[in-house]
Each structure stands twice: as C-alpha cells, then as structure tokens.
Amino acid sequence: MFPSFRFPAALLALATIAPLHATAAEPAPGPFYAGASYGFRASSGLDCIAGQSDCDKSSKRNGKAYVGYSFDALPFQGGVAVPSIELVGYMGGEVKSGFDTDAGKRAGRGKFSGLGMQGVLGYQFDAFTLSGRAGAAYTQGKVDYLGGGSDKKSKIGLTYGLGAAYALNKNWSLHLDWDRVPVKYNSKQTTKVDMFSLGASYRF
Predict the structure, then answer these.
(1) What Rg value do the Cα atoms of the chain yield, rounded?
(2) Cα angle 137, 141, 146; round to 5
(3) What's the whole-model pTM score?
(4) Per residue in 103-137, pLDDT tens?
(5) Rounded distance, CA 159 to CA 155, Å?
C-alpha cells in the first residue's frame, strides 16, 4: 500500500508559505509543477447490506498528489490551450459497506491506494483554467470483513476527470477536481470511486 499522506496539514503549509515564495519568485515559472489535494468526499458506488447499521458508502479522508510537465500553450478562442502530462498518486479513505464475495455479500471496511499516469488538457483564460484529464492507473484495494478475514486485489484501469483552477500568482494555484478511479477490492467486487478534492499546486 502507498504511504498515508496528511493532506489537510500539507495544504495548510502550502497556503502559509505561498506568499513568501510569491515575493521571491521573479523569473517566469518553468514547465514543471507539483500539487496535492484533499479529497473531502469519495463516492464508492457500493451497496449496503440490509440491516447494516454503520454503512457509509462515501469515504471522507482521501487525497492525491501529483507532479506534471506542461507543453507549449496554443492560442484558442481568446485564451490558451495547455496540454500537460502528470504522474499521480491516489489514497482512498475507509468506506463501510457491503462487498460481493464468493460466499455472497459481506459487510466490511475497504480502502485503496494507487499510482497513475494521465494526460491533461487545460483551457486558460485570465487567472482561470478549466481542464479535462484521462489516463490509466494501477490501484490496490483491501477490505477487512466485519465477521473476520480480509481480501486484497490489484487492478489496472482507465481514469478520467474534470477540474477548475484559479491562479493566485505565477507560481501558486488553487484547484477543485473530480476524479474517477477504478478499484478492485476482491475477486468479485470491482467499482469506480468518484473523488472530489480541493488543493493547491506550485509551478517551478
């Protein structure tokens, strides 16, 4: 499994030091950037078992971190189109639900982590950027069943999403993103997690 990052603390640190970097960074930023986002909600698409009292199909402690490279911008409809490529790490928080197994549906608690590569196409106008992304990710899901036992499975699948960003200055931007990530918890249970996240990025 991938390490658990403390995304809220990291974002707070980014917001604290951003003004200091903005003052010192006079040269135009380069094509490389990095960022992190805290997933405030992730819908799993799983189904609860009848009578499961602690069922919560949406996890609330999720996150992603990424590094990217932007290619040359192209003028488009009064703004510019900016193609980029990103390496992304995902962390999925705990979801309490029912999971399909060989012995039928069982109650459990599932988590996932993953690593992916994606292409991003952004449309930038003034300080705002709207973007779409698509790629592939390797994810590893794990479920601990409430009656005992656990399962772990890996999956390679397509990822895609949408995003909006606002540039605070030449280096720092705030982001609101939606990502759909494929997850396999066991041999019978596969789903797609919809993660909504808020974060920041820094362009070097």
Answers:
(1) 19
(2) 165
(3) 0.84
(4) 899 999 999 999 999 999 999 999 999 999 999 99
(5) 12
